[in-house]
Every structure is written in C-alpha cells, then in structure tokens.
Amino acid sequence: MSKNTFPVSGGAMPAATLTIRNLIDEETGDVKLWVLKGLARREAMRTWGEITPRSLRASVRVVADTIPEMQCAWRQRHGLPIAMTFVTSYGTARDGVRRSAF
Asked: Which top-level group of life is the source organism from (predicted)?
C-alpha cells in the first residue's frame, strides 16, 4: 500500500505543501484552491478551535487577502502587464448637475 498525499485521496497533507507560498501556481498564475481550502481549515482550527461554516468563511478572508498581491508579483516575474484602472477626476458633464468649486 502506497501512501500518496494528493488532496483528492483524502490522505494527510504534508506540511510543506500547505504554505502561503504554494497558493499561486507558478506555471499558470492561478490560485490553487485545494491549498486555499487547506490553509483556511488550518487557520480556522488555530484561531477558533473548530471548523464551522462561519470560522471557515472568516479564515478564507484572512488567507485570501494576500492573493491579489501574490498574483501581481507573479505577473511581474513573468513580464506580463498588471491591470490598472484609470479614474478621471470628473464625470460626464450634464446640465443641471452642480460641481464642486475645487
């Protein structure tokens, strides 16, 4: 009997696999959802001492806060552009709308 540690087999996950550094797939730049779920369960047990839907949602928020920064760093490492948003100072001009005096 071999001991594989793939997440689909239901076996134990090695500690080196469930790290924040493994959250982004280095080849594609996508989020590894099974790592996110494992980190969220670990955080829920560490913080609240139980795995409930509420603790899982809160721990996913804690872990997922770093995802945009990590994806941005991945895009920079691979020479891809980073999505930027341009916000204008004024909206479209319409009659009857007051503007500030700035």
From this structure: Bacteria
